[in-house]
Amino acid sequence: ANRKIRTYWVTMHAKVLASICLLAACQLSSGFSDLQANRDLFDDFKKTYNKAYESEEENERRFVHFSENMERAEAAQRGERGTARYGVTQFSDLTVEEFKQFGLSQNPELRAKRLPEAVIPEVEIPQEFDWRKKGVVTEVKSQKNCGSCWAFSAVGNIEGQWAIHKHKLISLSEQELVDCDKEDQGCEGGLMTSAYKAVISLGGLMSEKDYPYKGKNQTCSFNKKRAAVTINGGVSISKDEQKMAKWLFKNGPISIGLNSYNMQFYQNGVAHPQPKDCDPETIDHGTLIV
User: Fold this and answer.
1) Residue 106 sits in the same domain as residue 181
2) Are strands 85-86 and 254-258 parallel, antiparallel or unpaired?
3) Which residue range or ranges hold the Peptidase C1A papain C-terminal domain (predicted)?
4) Helices (H), the chain
């Protein structure tokens, strides 16, 4: 009887060991497969965005960041409550810290400055509204490898206001603000509130055609005689989304700040992230609501 028990135990023990070995082999195989898939994605990424690194060590370091970011993109996709799609973008080889350099200024003195509060109109909000369909929003522009989102956000707002009130849509110069707004930090970040004050102080904005975007800090070459538009002020709109919608519907596109954490991998669609990704204390990217 003891021999039978020992035989049975040895047989079961061997089966368990075999199962463990098979499981380990599957895990190793899966891990290798994921690694190879990421390597293939990384090679495609480099070709698509013309990425070239100075050394093999830098290439491998960027591959590690890329692989980690693909996991973050998958997590963002799992948590997405809207229609947004996340995946490979031109920023997929950057660390979180590097990507944040493309965002808003974290200067507390600048952030403390506010514009006068806006009067919110009493209007009924429609189910759907899009200022692009009204011809007051220019085509999507790229800030390139420059932390000038604040300039694009402010300029987009000014373009919309000018088009609504003057009945003429003009693509305006973000580069002017990058070069000439001395309160903000050009490609190192800024704030929309400061940008409006700079436009007033300078005497207007030139057109994109006359002062084209280069995506880097340059010497200011603003020519007041060639200013395409001027502004005389700005307002601060409530953080209440219903009030924001009312003001937008009545008055035009709004310059806003948002959390850029998932935007590093954003490809398209309407984003509706999890509450944990919407901390008002970590707003770091300027954009435009239309």
Assistant:
1) yes
2) unpaired
3) 125-290
4) 2-48, 56-79, 96-100, 108-112, 149-166, 174-180, 192-202, 241-251
Residues 130 and 251 in one domain: yes
pTM higher than the cut 0.85: no
H-helix segments, 101-233: 108-112, 149-166, 174-180, 192-202
Domain containing 41: what range? 1-86
Record the tokens describing residue 158, joined without a space: 């000014």
Gap between the Cα atoms of 216 and 260, Å rounded: 21
Q: What angle do CA 258, 287, 113 make, to 5 degrees?
A: 70
Half-sphere exposure of 268 (CA within 13 A, CB side): 1
Residue 231 lies in a domain: yes
Say if 280 falls within a structural domain: no
Give the percent of the chain with pLDDT over 90.
66
Query: Pick from 86, 120, 137: which residue ends a domain?
Result: 86
What is the per-residue pLDDT for 68? Answer: 94
Task: Look up residue 93 and give its two tokens.
Answer: 């080889």
Question: Tokens in use for 40?
Answer: 């293939």
